[in-house]
Amino acid sequence: MLIIPSWLLLVAFGGLETVTEDSSAEFRYDGPGLLFVVALWVVYRGVLHGVKGQTLGKMLLGIYVADANGKGLIGVGRAIGREVVIAVLFLLCFIPLVLDLLSPLWDRRNQAWHDKIVSSVVLKGKPDLPEPAIG
To answer: Fewer CB atoms < 10 Å away: N or C end of the chain?
Structure first.
């Protein structure tokens, strides 16, 4: 995930504000910075999951996102849909996002809600990608 660049972008575009009231600091996520960072996050993860099956973090962990029916990778469209579900849960409230991220612990196929919606699954190993054309 783009944690450090996301925070920098969030601050740069006004999504993170510090308000001092009665000697207390308040951190808020709002404004165009939040929407920009969420959109960047959805596109980054959507493209990498769709094309390679893995983000940089998944590469390090040795896992990848695949079609739940065994048809290879899920493609950019479904991968972006997968990330939009996560983003909506994040923007709605933190509790639905936590439940979504914990749901593989009690699911028979270890799928989160966002995986079920787009019919994807996270598997161990490396995805079988076609060899790039030379020439």
So the answer is: C
d(CA 49, CA 58): 9
- pLDDT tens for 60-114 read 999 999 999 988 899 999 999 998 898 888 878 778 889 999 999 999 999 999 9
> CA 91 → CA 15, 77, 135, distances in Å?
13, 21, 45
| Alpha-carbon gap, residue 135 to 51, rounded angstroms | 21
Helix, coil or strand: residue 106? coil
Distances in Å between the Cα of 9 and the Cα atoms of 3, 67, 128 are 10, 32, 34
- Residue among 43, 8, 14 nearest 29 (CA): 14
pTM: 0.72
